[in-house]
Amino acid sequence: MLSIRLRDGEKAAIAAAAKxxxxxxxxxxxxxxxxxxxxxSVEGAFALPDDLLRLSVGLExxxxxxx
Length: 67
Hints:
Helices cover 28% and strands 22% of the residues. The protein is built from three helices and four strands; from the N terminus they run E-H-E-E-H-E-H.
C-alpha cells in the first residue's frame, strides 16, 4: 500500500487516477489486483487531503493489466 499526494490538488489527483493503465479504480484491502483510489471521494475530504491517492500493488502479471 502506498499513498501519494499530487501537488496540483484534487482535480489533478482525480485526473491521474482516471488515466492510469496498470491499476484498476476501486476500493479494497483484500484484493490481489493493483488498485488505485482517490480517498477523499470515498471517505470525504474532511477526513483526508483532497489530493491523496492510495495505490495497492497487485500480484498480477503486468502484461495482463494492459489487456
